[in-house]
Design goal:
Blueprint: E1 2-9, H1 13-22, H2 24-29, E2 32-39, E3 46-53, H3 56-63, H4 66-75, E4 82-87
Antiparallel strand pairs: 1-3, 1-4, 2-3
Helix pairs in contact: 1-4
């Protein structure tokens, strides 16, 4: 299973969460199968999301899409997102 880990800061979590949830159909259509959402205990506007994806190629294509870039701007992402494309290690 492929994963995409995203870390970024948002201006206002509630505003960001609304846009994030509206974007769910686009993520699923791109191969996202599930996600876990975390907030920093000391800074609730510091967000970490671990997505499960059907393939690294599809996760990368989604992460580099103009649609995602526009949604992030609209949602108030204020830091440059850190993106990590990961494969599970079954060894």
């Amino acid at each position: 299973m492929a994963h995409l880990l995203i870390v970024h800061d948002v201006e206002d979590y509630a505003q960001w969460r609304t846009i994030f949830e509206r974007h769910d159909d686009m993520r699923q259509a791109s191969g996202c199968e599930a996600y876990q959402l975390f907030r920093d205990a000391d800074n609730p506007n510091h967000v970490v999301i671990l997505f499960e994806w059907d393939s690294v190629a599809n996760a990368r294509q989604f992460a580099e899409s103009d649609d995602l870039r526009q949604a992030m701007q609209k949602a108030g992402v204020v830091s440059r997102p850190q993106a990590y494309f990961l494969n599970e290690d079954y060894s």
